[in-house]
What does this fold into?
Amino acid sequence: MSKIITIGREFGSGGRELGRRLSEKLGYAYYDQEIIAEIAKRTALSEEYVQQIIERKPITSFPIHIGHSFYPVTNPMFQQSLNVYAEQHKLLQEMAAKSDCIIVGRCADYILRDEKPFRVFVYADVDSKLDRCMKRKAEDEHLTEQEMKKRMASIDKGRAKYYEFYSDRKWGARENYDLMVNTSGQNIKVVTQAVLDYLAALEK
It folds into this structure.
């Protein structure tokens, strides 16, 4: 059976970098934006549109519970959201079956729950996340610190609603993860080694 590590993360916490560094050290396949690209290819949708869909709660005009059952719907946009999620579900299972891997976001901890992945959630205080985001923003992105804070909050709100909609679980709640990692004021390279040491200790 493949070894699977899933990483949920707050925006700006360094979770993506942590996942990439862990994959390099462990020799595991790393899946992040590759998931978006493959879903776009399979659904004939643009990568930008797929990205928007999988980081927001689907829009529906009536209550619906997805955690255990899918119900017929007539709203085209809502149906498209369900179709993208179904494709994502299938793709993550294929990736997990292929080799040892690290998967960032995309409800992977819930979708692959039967595979018993090692579930990590990465978080940090606002100042640390803001500092990281301001340093790494694109050159043509001219957001003020206040605007960046609003963007950070909006993205995390969308991720939480998306995760909770499909999993019926609370995003970031400690009972849903095997390891909570606080990167506030920390160098991700150092954090990576600490996580590696912890994983090695579990193997003993």
Observations:
- The helical segments are 15-26, 33-43, 47-53, 76-98, 108-111, 126-136, 145-167, 188-203.
- The longest strand covers residues 4-9.
